[in-house]
Amino acid sequence: MILLGILGTLFVQFAILSLVAIGGANAVIPEMHRLCVDTYHWMTDRQFTDMFAVTQATPGPGVMMVAVIGWRAAGLAGAIVAMIGMVLPSSLLTYNVVRLWDRFRDRPWRPRIQNGLAPVTAGLVAASGLLLARGADTDIVTVMITIAATIVAFKSKLNPLWMFAGGGLLGALIYS
Description:
By secondary structure, this protein is mainly alpha-helical. Helices cover 81% and strands 0% of the residues. It contains seven helices and no strands. α1 crosses α4, α3 crosses α4 and α6 runs antiparallel to α7. The model has no long low-confidence stretch (mean pLDDT 87).
């Protein structure tokens, strides 16, 4: 695939994903994984999982994963094109929907739609977590670390970065 073809593919695929990323880029991680690993072979399953972990542990928005994927697929131009594809369509749609949404602020169906989107978002994010756990869990120790982190995440208000740090420390201690 020539570079222009990769750039076009990055833009189109991330533009489509941007329109279904209800709840943010993390909600479409499974589809990003399918595209990057299974369809276009820009990276391996393990590389995808590692890149996700790094982008989540660094400061900044979760959508930075898109730039890293673009970089991996086509260098700096790929990072820029992928980010434009992920941000531009959804931003334009959001701008126009918000303008329209304000017109219907007193309608009885408006809160029903908003409440209905919450479980959709939660389901998409949960699917992302499951996919990433499958890619990272290679033995019983990593499975147990993942289960423990999941329980802590649901039972406490602890910042997820502490779980990343704890998991990394445990992994370093066990596997070094």
